[in-house]
Sequence to fold (222 residues):
Amino acid sequence: MAKTRSSGTGPGDIAPDGSAVEFYAAQPRNEEAAALVHGALPPGASILELGAGAGRVTAPLVALGHPVTAVDDSAEMLARVTGARTVCSPIEDLDLPDRFGCVLMMSYLVNYGDRTALLDACRRHAAPDGLVIVQRETVDWEEAPRAWSHDGIDFRLSELERLDPERCAATIEYRMGERRWTHSFVSRRLGEEELPEVLAASGLRLDRFLDEGHGWVAARPA
Fold:
């Protein structure tokens, strides 16, 4: 396989990172993630959601009283977002004049892209007393199940290759009824022991973890 860039196949539009727009738009709201973020913030805190996709977390955050600015590099994804300001831009290039009570970057984006550039963008947009919330992978892909199902969707890890000690290339197949998509990507490990140094390189400091598995990282401007 040896792919080093993200790509995707299947019906409908495919975002620049290989994500299938129709697939994500068809999924239910992620109320659990929204509740976790909401619980870490003051009421009504403004949120910059980086990599918002089709708005699965955006909508419940808005319903919980947060003004959300949703950022994605796919205009087709953002067309599915409701109730929030939208900005179409790569995260790394984003430079808004606003500062936010929370900068939120989920979906393991910190594992898939240039983590320094991504975290720099988080720091750039966080208010001095704001919170940066990042979701990272905590399970090595080589230890992950090869097939699983939830919410009526069948998932299959169809390809996996270790590129080096830190990176794996993977392809996941998604099936919903007769529709089938694939998403190929490279994941780079970000271990808990690395977090203080990685965050510090972008002017952030580790504040706490929001979950028992330590996949949800809360940081503050240093």
About this structure: The mean pLDDT is 95.
